[in-house]
Fold this sequence. Notes:
The complex is a heterodimer.
Chain A: H1 2-7, H2 11-27, H3 32-45, E1 50-55, E2 59-66, E3 69-76, H4 84-98, H5 104-116, H6 123-140, H7 145-167, H8 172-194, H9 199-206, H10 213-224, H11 228-255
Antiparallel strand pairs in A: 1-2, 2-3
Helix pairs in contact in A: 2-3, 2-4, 2-5, 3-4, 4-5, 6-7, 6-9, 7-8, 7-9, 8-9, 8-11, 10-11
Chain B: H1 2-5, H2 10-20, H3 28-47, H4 52-73, H5 78-86, H6 92-106, H7 114-150
Amino acid sequence: MENDQTQVLPVQEIMDLALMAGLYSHQSGGDTNRTSGIIRRMALALGAARADTVISSINIGVTVERNGQRETGFRKAPHMGANFTMLTAVAQVVEAVEAGRIGAAEVRRQLEEIAQHPHFYPRWLIAATVGLSCGGFAALFGGDVAAIACTTLGSGVGMALRLFLHKRHYVPFMFALASSFTAMMVTGLLLKLAHSQTPDAAMAASVLFLIPGVPFINGAADLFGTNYLNGMVRIMMGIIFVIGIAAGVSLALRIL
Amino acid sequence: MNTWLLELWAAPAALGFVLLFNVPPRSLAVCCTLAVIGHAVRKGVMLLGGDIVLGSLLGGLVIGLLAEWWGARHHMIPTVYSIGAAIPMVPGTLMYKAVQALLGVANLASPLTSGNHAIAQQLLVEAGVNSVKASMAVMALAFGIAAPILFRPGRNR
């Protein structure tokens, strides 16, 4: 039954659903091979005979073919920051449609639901926990209790600023610079008050919340997975961000 | 014993990042456990005489393999666990030392006197050594995490 239903699905509809799944994968932190695989598997599972993808750093596209019919479409897919709940949900929809558990209408409904799904954690909680994370870094670097406390506070403030600037659509370089400067200034001033014995551990840990882990690791995954161009773009995004951090740190260290 | 207990700080260090990456609540404990295991593996390697690059490679590899295994069992994408868990192994101290040394170079008086020259050399060496070490550690870490996928060609394509 399910098979009959997918047989009559228009090629344009197949392309549309495949691009939708690809868009969510690309935007939520999937590497190039994963996004490409999700688009192709979705199209084939919905009845396409062939699907060829194009994935660049900010665009995705696919050509879907069946019985001499052919449709091509592109979508703009700017980065939105990692969202692993979304990535997992998209992968599970693709698995379900491949196993024949759901049809095209249900795919569309589930993908639309995924798009509306909110983040689990409120901003203040993220800022507070990221602050604690940097406190953890300070501990791992051999910091004492005062160093851990100062880093937690400083990084929490820095992270809150980062989330705020991100929401205001500042470019990554600018919010890296402003947040690293703020985090290091707050941490450094608190350290002077708290008389920590290990100020270096705290200072080194205070800006680590800005380390662009997802671009670097996805970039490495792309390079190792032979998607050299996208890999270089991701690594470059990370490097520009790191330069922003270094600029903020050097400003703060001159003042402190 | 106390130094091994210190490794538990890797769990909160990872927690902030996995929240930032919107990892589903039921997976938080797994991420934090992997973070502690990976960081402890690196510490173990370094205690046995390995350097930070080898330690990061093996720590990343252990995280990558465990994430792959756990992800396959629970129909989850392994990177959901591995990226957050790897973050506490980012060599922050080395990076900080490199930036500090470079800033020292910027502060040197412009015409280099013979006294200045020795300091400049020392700073450049320190910046170079620390940034090379940090880059190699990060690359080893990324390769370690990606290794389980790389050893199974054609799986995600």
